[in-house]
Amino acid sequence: MPRTKTGVVTSTKMQGTVTVRVTEYRKHPKYGKDVPVSKNFHANTAGASLEEGMTVTIEETAPRSKTVCWKVIS
User: Fold this and answer.
1) At residue 22, does pLDDT exceed 90?
2) Considering the chain, what percentage of its residues have pLDDT values greater than 90?
3) CATH of the domain at 49
4) The dihedral sign for the CA sequence 29, 31, 32, 34
5) What average pLDDT does the segment 22-44 reach?
6) Which residues pair with 8 in a beta bridge?
7) Which residue range(s) make up the domain with 9?
8) Cα(35)–Cα(1) distance, integer angstroms
């Protein structure tokens, strides 16, 4: 089963590809507080029209280019 992540679209400047920022919370090793950790992923849109600020779910796929190995599923 492929991994899925939920994030916010931050850039739609590429053709057929969007940048999605995924924020996860991890516990601080010493203090135990939840600390936000963000990472950007490039995802293939498969023809869907998306705008910046939309919340999307992405799914891991086989590599489609040098930096794209995710696709938008919703």
Assistant:
1) yes
2) 92
3) 2.40.50.140
4) negative
5) 98
6) 21, 55
7) 4-72
8) 28
Look at residue 26 in the predicted model and tell me its pLDDT. Answer: 97
**Number of domains the chain is built from:** 1
The answer, yes or no, to whether residue 1 has pLDDT greater than 90, is: no
Which is nearest to 40 in space by CA: 1, 66, 5? 5
CA–CA distances in Å: residue 69 to residues 30, 34, 42, 60:
34, 28, 7, 6
DSSP the chain: ---EEEEEEEEEEETTEEEEEEEEEEE-TTT--EEEEEEEEEEE-TT----TT-EEEEEE-S--SSSEEEEE--
Q: What is the pTM of this model?
A: 0.90
Residue 54: left if φ>0, alpha if ψ -120 to 50, beta else—which one? Answer: beta
